[in-house]
Amino acid sequence: MSNTAKQAASTFKIGGELEINRLGYGGMQLTGFGVWGDAPNRETAKQVLRNAVEAGVNFIDTADSYGPHTNEVLIAEALHPYPAGLLIATKGGFDRTGPNQWVTNGRPEHIREAIEGSLQRLKLDCIDLWQLHRVDPKVPVEETLGPVVEAVQAGKIRHVGLSEVGIEDIERAEKVLPIVSVQNLYNLGNRKWEDVLDYTTQRGMAFIPWYPLASGPDKLASKIQAIAQKHGATTAQIALAWLLKRSPNILLIPGTSSPEHLKENLAADQIELSEEDVAALSE
């Protein structure tokens, strides 16, 4: 592969205009137990964020519900004023009532508050990618997205994405405003959303798998150990490399609170899986 082709393969344009490296960073693990409260070691957490950006990461994913709120504050403390070209994506649509407690809230007043809060905490005038964290079954999505449309028109949000949605959800939301990304659970061990991935690929939307390593690479070890050994890589790196190879619109946001694991994750884009490797992993 030529350098130009490799570069094209390693980047993606959000909304057809914001070019980012496909291997990004997800901030969720920089919180306390149950994604509740602040990072146990804030200085290390801030260093992980800085290391990621220094290593070339220019796509960071967070949410107002991580902490709640603490993750966005931490990102701003670590990285603001932001370097040119850094895209910080955030999400809204959950109430948090305690560790591991997630309550969907798609009421327009909550969404409006979430957007304003994220802008303040992240110290941004405009959020490049704001994502609806969940569609609330109790509220018509058209109502939920009302304040998002207003924020786009006011220049407070540039692009909009959805999370954990099916094709019908995407098409319904697109009647309200353009959707540029979908963030669904997807990894080597769980391909429930295969049809949504294929749909987003055809539509030129970004597909952002959350939980890209399932519940840890060890669960996948028996399947990918031989391929990992062949490449001199870890099972986690192979799981990430498979996702990068699976479709050119996949953006990866593996999270970690460890500088060492960060380095390991970011090296995954150096692994060139063969067609035979991909076939073996995709069985």
From TrEMBL:
Keyword Glycoprotein recorded: no
Alphabetical list of InterPro entries matching this protein: AKR, Aldo-Keto_reductase, NAD(P)_OxRdtase_dom_sf, NADP_OxRdtase_dom
The entry's keywords: Oxidoreductase
Pfam families linked: Aldo_ket_red
GO CC field: cytoplasm
Domain of life: Bacteria
UniProt GO MF annotations: oxidoreductase activity
Protein name from the UniProt record: Aryl-alcohol dehydrogenase-like predicted oxidoreductase
